[in-house]
Write a structure and sequence with these properties.
Blueprint: E1 3-12, E2 15-25, E3 30-34, H1 41-48, E4 56-61, E5 64-65, E6 74-77, H2 89-99, H3 104-117, H4 133-145, E7 151-155, H5 163-178, E8 182-186, H6 190-196, E9 199-204, E10 207-213, H7 214-221, E11 224-230, E12 243-248, E13 252-257, H8 260-270, E14 276-282, H9 286-294
Parallel strand pairs: 3-8, 3-9, 6-7, 7-8
Antiparallel strand pairs: 1-2, 1-4, 4-5, 9-10, 11-13, 11-14, 12-13
Helix pairs in contact: 2-3
Length: 299
Amino acid sequence: MVLKIEHVTKRFGQFTAVNDLSLAIPEKEMFGFLGANGAGKTTTFRMILGLLDPSAGKISWDDKPINYSTSHLVGYLPEERGLYPKLKVKDQIVYLARLRGMQKNEAIQELTFWLEKFKVPEYATKKVEELSKGNQQKIQFIAAVIHKPKLLILDEPFSGLDPVNVEMLKDAVLTLKESGTTIVFSSHQMHHVEEMCEHLCIMHKGRPVVHGSLKEIKRTFGKKNLVIHADFPLDMLKNYPGVLKARTTMEGIELQVEGEKVAEKILKEIVQNGFIRRFELEEPSLNDIFIEKVGDSYE
């Protein structure tokens, strides 16, 4: 059961929001969508959900078209909150679950499971407006997953959450992945995508600029980051052949280098100069790759 997006374009009048996007998202996989605001992520999600029709191209799930007949297989956590503030949590979730074809007792059972997992069983009888933003996000998340969807779309699921709630929600998302749900999520925080996704797509102005497995993307980028802390000055490395970027820190220097060979040469050169506390070659971060491909920092 693969989610396929084939040559999909979406135009609004003269404006092209998504431009010839092709992706295949494997089953039981967590797939990351990155891109600045206006890159076309939410428009793509709305087309996957069947809320918007593509201007060109097609979207299929398990080789069947996505439409209202498949909506019970899909869960969606929108970036904007969409809960009824005056309704009690239990009434709201049961109502939404019934719309997805669930029985009331089954919905209550699932709700109880999730509220306990989030350590807030007492929220069942509270009105949504009485909850903090972070706790409203948990209820919104439960609404998206109550019917055990095969495909879950999360639009900025961690935005506005404190670190404790982020970890709790991340843990919930990973639990779903392990149970076989295919998850597609967009995030502003690169490190979440880096931690959680095997495959990703970086979109820029409606087009995919980077797409593939995270390991492969990092490998083909080629450049590495080199961190050096030493008891002697390191400023002379800024102009060293093969050094592309340099930033002085309190402890030493951080360099972006063309590859491992440059790091080797630097080590041979400085090893006689004195005590080196740290010499570490790191993979490029997603942020490095994003800046290179999109010409702009993301966060």
